[in-house]
Amino acid sequence: EAQVTQNPRYLITVTGKKLTVTCSQNMNHEYMSWYRQDPGLGLRQIYYSMNVEVTDKGDVPEGYKVSRKEKRNFPLILESPSPNQTSLYFCASSLKPPGGVSYNSPLHFGNGTRLTVT
Amino acid sequence: QQQVKQSPQSLIVQKGGISIINCAYENTAFDYFPWYQQFPGKGPALLIAIRPDVSEKKEGRFTISFNKSAKQFSLHIMDSQPGDSATYFCAASSGSRLTFGEGTQLTVNP
């Protein structure tokens, strides 16, 4: 089954304790991205990757790191989490970047990771 | 600064009615305008999308209307059903990034 898998689904941690949220896709997609979803703010892009070893900042990158060493994996790293990073996080992938000439390249989302930082 | 503004924040419609969600954007470089639907506990999924050279696109009960000069686009759900109850996000893209609106929580009462 074609899917984007995030782990864990739920995570409660304390301020300053490094954590990693994993994301894996089995569709051979080039483009991957991380979003956070907060009430009243919608989905805001954290980082995205156009391909292996190619990553760039989104709208809210502060406090986050990513890496893309393999095409299928795109982990999100919080090296020193803070309470303002409490949120619902989504990983997404698409065959090509979502705009430009790639109109038929929809984003496929995982089921989310709910992170609470106390 | 929200580049894509969405309204209303929440919407309650009776079964069989028309649901209308509106979005406005600032960046004239946006060239792709999708709508995503999200059910509780799930990630968003593409519902319908439009390019700026088209003023309207219809897929079943879902229609996007696009007004390039006003920099506005809207989603119309005809004959709304309880199964349409979900959160809807408009979005806009230019190249490598997709920017979402704030979301609209739609409730369709039976």
Question: Which SSEs are present, and which pair or pack?
Answer:
The complex is a heterodimer of chains A (118) and B (110).
Chain A: E1 4-7, E2 10-13, E3 19-25, E4 31-38, E5 42-51, E6 54-57, E7 65-66, E8 76-78, E9 87-94, E10 108-109, E11 113-117
Chain B: E1 4-7, E2 10-14, E3 19-25, E4 33-38, E5 45-50, E6 56-59, E7 62-67, E8 72-77, E9 86-94, E10 97-100, E11 104-109
Parallel strand pairs in B: 2-11
Antiparallel strand pairs in B: 1-3, 3-8, 4-5, 4-9, 6-7, 7-8, 9-10, 9-11
In helices, the fraction of residues of chain A equals under 10%
End-to-end C-alpha gap of chain A = 36 Å
Unreliable stretches of chain B: none
Q: For the residues shown, what is the average pLDDT of chain A?
A: 94
Please write the string of helix (H) and strand (E) elements of chain A.
EEEEEEEEEEE
Rounded to the nearest angstrom, the distance between the terminal CA atoms of chain B is 37 Å
SSE ordering of chain B: EEEEEEEEEEE
Fraction of helical residues of chain B: under 10%
Estimate the strand proportion of chain A: over 45%
**What general form of chain B does the structure show?**
globular
Number of strands of chain A: 11
Overall, the morphology of chain A is globular
Class by alpha and beta content of chain B: mainly beta
List the quaternary state of the chains. heterodimer
Radius of gyration of chain A (CA) equals: 14 Å
Biggest sheet record of chain B: 6 strands, mixed
Mind telling me the C-alpha Rg of chain B?
13 Å
Query: How confident overall, as mean pLDDT of chain B?
Result: 94
Number of helices of chain B: 0
Structural class, judged by helices and strands of chain A?
A: mainly beta
